[in-house]
């Protein structure tokens, strides 16, 4: 089978082109995405190394820290290099008990976006995503708030996270949707239908938790077997598998270690042949 393209152009009008191995910036915060990391200078060095490796798509959120991840990205990378695309999210809040609470009120989303603009030191956010639908607020009102922010020039593209196919379709009737970010990995394909819808429409699909392979990496597993054949790690095969599934998939693995970062980015160069994909199985067999 042909090697997958390693670039993706967002399908919205004037959308940017990014390399398909992105970086998820949740883990530059403290444990559980709470508080500052133990080594702030080390975290900034890691973020700069991400760019050095050719990664030009960052995913973060105001809830990471909270507020820590966005602040670190700006401290490490501003003024931003040409071509860097930063995606952030609003709609989750973190009270003192460290839980994740949904707040999709339009007023909150507007305030959250303004705060992210300040932390990221930018006049316009490249991609702003609804972090999770709030069942207490009409979904159309939540998406409508992001549409309004786009009309005002505060965000360039609108994205969704943790949504169903039905919600994606409802949102597309309100505003152009550039991306969907749902949990998806080799061992958890519950949102395969959402990926399929994104593939059909040319919408970017950002699988969060892309390396949650668990026991699948053990000796004798399909990932471990293919990894041994390719002189790679099971994690690299799991990321390469995602890249081979669809040209709209942009994995966003995160890490706090430069060695692990370099390993993840190296997965983009891993070519899986037809036999490898048959051995891995999963979604492609459906």
Write the layout of secondary structure elements.
Blueprint: E1 7-9, E2 17-19, E3 23-24, H1 40-52, E4 57-59, H2 68-77, E5 85-90, E6 92-93, E7 101-102, H3 106-120, E8 125-130, H4 139-151, E9 155-161, H5 165-172, E10 177-181, H6 192-201, E11 204-205, H7 222-230, H8 234-245, H9 258-266, H10 274-280
Parallel strand pairs: 3-4, 4-5, 5-8, 8-9, 9-10, 10-11
Antiparallel strand pairs: 1-2, 6-7
Q: Mind explaining what this structure looks like?
A:
This protein is α/β, with parallel strands linked by helices. It has a single domain, classed as TIM Barrel (Alpha-Beta Barrel), CATH 3.20.20. The protein has helices at 40-52, 68-77, 106-120, 139-151, 165-172, 192-201, 222-230, 234-245, 258-266, 274-280; strands spanning 7-9, 17-19, 23-24, 57-59, 85-90, 92-93, 101-102, 125-130, 155-161, 177-181, 204-205. Strands 3-4-5-8-9-10-11 form a seven-stranded parallel β-sheet, with helices on one face. A two-stranded antiparallel ribbon has the order 1-2. A two-stranded antiparallel sheet has the order 6-7. The radius of gyration is 18 Å and the shape is globular. It starts with 6 loop residues before the first strand and ends in a 6-residue tail after the last helix.
